[in-house]
Specification:
The structure is a single chain. This protein is of the alpha/beta class. It has helices at 16-30, 50-60, 81-92, 130-133, 142-152, 164-174, 220-230, 267-272, 288-295, 306-312, 324-336, 338-355, 358-373; strands spanning 3-6, 36-39, 67-68, 70-72, 75-77, 96-99, 106-109, 115-117, 121-125, 156-161, 181-183, 208-211, 236-239, 256-260, 276-279, 300-303, 317-319. The strands form three sheets. The chain has an eight-stranded mixed β-sheet.
Length: 380
């Protein structure tokens, strides 16, 4: 039975959803199940004027006619399919139905795209429901997400998520049957850091690190305030895209170093060289920076409760993320206590090896596919 994943985010950079899509593909290849890729013309296959393309898409969006996919080496293809799905849903509130040649199979949509392949087992990853539970903390429109999920429910054979905490919230908030949602976790196997790859002016163990976008749920204001209150002489390095324009952001205090967006290949050295990762986020579906830091042996400070505590698995220092004083006190402990840092680093490596390997993630995905599509459809 064919196994396919959507290629919508495989070429994207800098987002958790894009990292997830690439990780799913790599994990399935690791366990011997390379996948077909559902692709479209977004990578320049058709030299078509962008304005004409948008106009044609808008006209097509009114129709309920299914879109026929064609088989190509390595996958399935239809021009403009992802943007058309978005346009059709925005215009009509309906899901774009696709027709694929050959036998039916399993398609894993790595994000709730408003599309479904007719006759296939359509599975959708729903990373979290933070836009619904914490709308003030989310960049995504919660009402729009809820409408899209409601439209997808008749087409979905099941839902995949990344943590038991997220699974519980999906069931509670959306009223989806518990047996229709599976937590498959995630993999975190960062590349070994390249020697001498730290940015100029940084030395191993000589800085604290936050990496990720600075959207409200990441709690960056309290992280900076806690770091200042700790009294440490080590700078705080902030790596990742900013959610606010510099003119709208309060000036950083002395000792804060902003690196902006870094290519993924540059992150392992930065994470491995940190005294500790400071990641007491207010809301997460999983918390990939936690798992990546532990895999590299870097101590982690994160939030008690929810997905962050689940991902940490007893191998991190936990604080109330709303308590700036607690963040400061924990940062001071990490600054002063070499033995604590060594213990957390070792515990993190063990936790990452047990829970976040690519092979284990691939097998959890296959188990979810079998559960929803039939026990005989894939042989591990």
């Amino acid at each position: 039975m064919p196994l396919c994943i959507d290629g919508r985010m495989l070429a994207a950079r800098g987002t958790g959803v894009a990292t997830y899509a690439r990780t799913v593909r790599a994990a399935l290849e690791w366990v011997g199940h390379p996948t077909l890729i559902l692709d479209d013309a977004a990578r320049g296959r058709f030299a078509e004027d962008a304005r004409a393309r948008r106009w044609r898409r808008w006209l097509r969006a009114r129709s309920d006619a299914p879109v026929r996919l064609r088989a190509e080496p390595g996958g399935l293809f239809a021009p403009d399919v992802f943007a058309l799905a978005q346009a059709r849903f925005a215009r009509t509130g309906r899901v774009l139905v696709l027709q694929a040649p050959g036998p039916s199979g399993v398609v894993h949509w790595t994000y709730p795209v408003a599309a479904a392949i007719s006759g296939w087992c359509n599975l959708y990853t729903l990373h979290d429901v933070i836009p619904l539970t914490h709308p003030a903390l989310a960049a995504t429109d919660g009402e729009a997400l809820a409408r899209r999920i409601a439209a997808l429910r008749p087409h979905a054979a099941g839902w995949i998520t990344v943590s038991e905490a997220s699974r519980a919230e999906i069931v509670r908030v959306l009223g989806i049957a518990p047996e229709a949602v599976v937590s498959a976790g995630l993999a975190a196997e960062p590349e070994p850091p390249a020697p001498g790859a730290l940015p100029a002016g940084l030395s191993a163990g000589g800085y604290f690190l936050f990496h990720g976008s600075d959207e409200p749920r990441k709690n960056l204001g309290r992280i900076v305030a806690g770091w200042r209150a700790s009294g440490t002489a080590r700078p705080l390095v902030i790596a990742g895209p900013t959610g606010t324009a510099p003119a709208d952001r309060l000036p950083d205090p002395p000792g804060v170093i902003r690196l902006g967006y870094l290519p993924h290949a540059g992150l392992p050295a930065l994470v491995a060289g940190a005294r500790a990762l400071l990641f007491p986020s207010l809301a997460e579906g999983f918390g990939l920076p936690i798992a990546e830091a532990m895999a590299l042996g870097t101590p982690v400070l994160t939030a008690a409760g929810g997905a962050t505590e689940e991902t940490a698995g007893g191998a991190a220092l936990l604080v109330d993320p709303t308590d700036t004083a607690a963040i400061g006190a924990a940062t001071a402990r990490l600054d002063a206590d070499d033995a604590l840092c060594r213990a957390l680093g070792e515990a993190g490596r063990v936790r990452a090896g047990e829970a976040f390997g690519a092979e284990a993630f691939g097998r959890r995905l296959l188990a979810a596919y079998r559960l929803f599509a039939g026990a005989s459809m894939l042989v591990a």
